[in-house]
Amino acid sequence: MPILTRPDGEIRYETHGSGFPVLLFAPGGLRSRLEMWSAPAAGPPRPWVDWTQALPAAGFTAIAMDQRNAGQSKADIEADHGWHTYAADHLALMDHLGFERFHVLGGCIGGSFCLKAIQEAPMRVAAAVLQNPIGLNPEHPEYFPESHAEWGAAQRADRPAITEEALAGFGRNMWSQDFVFCVDREFARNCPAPTFLLPGTDIPHPATTSSELADLLPGVEVLTQWRGPDHLDQQEKRVVAFLKTHTPKG
Prior knowledge:
Number of domains: 1
Order of helices and strands: EEEHEEHEHEHHHEHEH
Radius of gyration: 17 Å
Largest sheet: 9 strands, mixed
Structural class: alpha/beta
CATH topology: Rossmann fold
């Protein structure tokens, strides 16, 4: 099991295939882990393509990971942690693997990870795919703070040394903004990386957020009908074509 050692913990990751790299951020909120890409053996199929398989077949290197404190990754939780902490993990992983430039593709919370990666390293991210992005739902504004509290209680049960103050500060840094939480609308309006959007439609992935992203992101490509077995082939075809179009030559 490959492990990236960070100053405050360890990050589990896997690489698949060869070619231009695509860093994958799996769905699952703060429980985002690489197994979320594939369908569970005893469960229903996922409504999305398993990019750990599809991208290598298309000539890319797919890098999947467990986010810090999800799956088999474990790291500190401090009151000053936030989106920048995750972005530092992501960039450190690509440094570790020797990839200077790369695409990003994220589902759910991964959409915000993508945008934060672009903000932190605009010259390194060649293109981004935002699949079912999260955002502040005006009809359910407490969804993410409440989910954070539930996640934090599980973390404390497993590691009592984590303080309530650390979890509360981390939660404020993650969820106190609006829109997509990690960047503002002005950044989206001037986003320097090409983007492809697979819109959201439910409480944690609001249609209003995806509609704003579609309006703000410069030149964004949008595939509205993308979920489920009837659309997987088109989903894969369009995303792969987008990534190939924006893969640096040479």
